């Protein structure tokens, strides 16, 4: 079974992250859910952005993520995340020579030109997604392939950005179930 580190979105460590971790544990995986916001959760993106700026922005969040992952990384991790957490997961996975995979839900991050990896990557996105426009996703896909990653993209027509979170207006039950079924299959292929 895979050892997974699952990062929360800009909304913080909300029940959807715990539910996702429980779903993956039920499939036999070990799942860690670091809280990069130290217990804070947000219902408003402006408040979340203000908090992120207050603590030092993306640099501080990445530092917190590295500290959270450091004791876990000996055996090779699968990095996963929701939206902002997906961007963090991507950055860590591409920097970790022992990474076994990358599962992205609702978000990606830019890649350095010299990025190189051979990890399998699975991405789940709304179609369209206001935070990840079509041009961005196409460029991201090409850069990931150029870096050497095996990339699988799942798009969900008409779903909202955070379509896996039942507590948000974006929720799309059918899309969420399809995404989790594909994610569980993807993770099963990464097992020892």
Query: Strand portion, in percent?
Result: 15-25%
Strand numbers in spatial order across the main sheet: 2-1-3-4-5-6
**Quaternary structure annotation:** single chain
Question: How does the helix and strand content classify structurally?
Answer: alpha/beta
Number of helices: 6
CATH top level label: Alpha Beta
Mean of the pLDDT scores? Answer: 95
User: Radius of gyration over alpha carbons?
Assistant: 15 Å
List SSEs in N-to-C order.
EHEHHEHEEHEH
User: Which regions contain 5 or more consecutive residues with pLDDT less than 50?
Assistant: none
Q: How would you characterize this protein structure?
A:
Helix content is 41%, strand content 18%. By secondary structure, the chain is of the alpha/beta class. The chain has one domain: Rossmann fold (3-Layer(aba) Sandwich). It has a 6-stranded parallel beta sheet with strand order 2-1-3-4-5-6, sandwiched between helices. The N and C termini lie close together (6 Å).
Question: Which short descriptors sum up this protein?
Answer:
single chain, 192 residues, alpha/beta, Rossmann fold, six-stranded parallel beta sheet, 6 helices, globular
Write the topology of this structure.
Elements: E1 3-7, H1 15-26, E2 30-32, H2 45-55, H3 57-69, E3 78-82, H4 84-95, E4 101-105, E5 120-127, H5 134-147, E6 150-157, H6 173-188
Parallel strand pairs: 1-2, 1-3, 3-4, 4-5, 5-6
């Amino acid at each position: 079974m895979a050892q997974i580190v699952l990062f929360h979105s800009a909304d913080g460590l909300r029940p959807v992250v715990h539910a996702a971790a429980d779903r993956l544990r039920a499939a036999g995986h070990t799942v860690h859910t670091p809280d990069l916001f130290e217990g804070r959760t947000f219902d408003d993106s402006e408040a979340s952005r203000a908090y992120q700026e207050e603590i030092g922005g993306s640099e501080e969040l990445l530092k917190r993520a590295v500290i959270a992952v450091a004791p876990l990384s000996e055996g090779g991790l699968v990095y996963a995340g929701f939206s902002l957490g997906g961007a963090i997961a991507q950055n860590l996975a591409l920097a970790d020579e022992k990474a076994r995979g990358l599962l992205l839900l609702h978000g990606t991050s830019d890649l350095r030109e010299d990025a190189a990896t051979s990890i399998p990557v699975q991405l789940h996105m709304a179609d369209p997604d206001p935070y990840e426009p079509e041009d961005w996703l196409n460029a991201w896909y090409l850069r990931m392939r150029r870096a050497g990653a095996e990339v699988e993209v799942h798009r969900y027509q008409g779903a909202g950005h955070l379509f896996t979170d039942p507590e948000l207006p974006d929720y799309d039950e059918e899309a969420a179930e399809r995404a989790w079924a594909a994610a569980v299959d993807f993770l099963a292929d990464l097992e020892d």
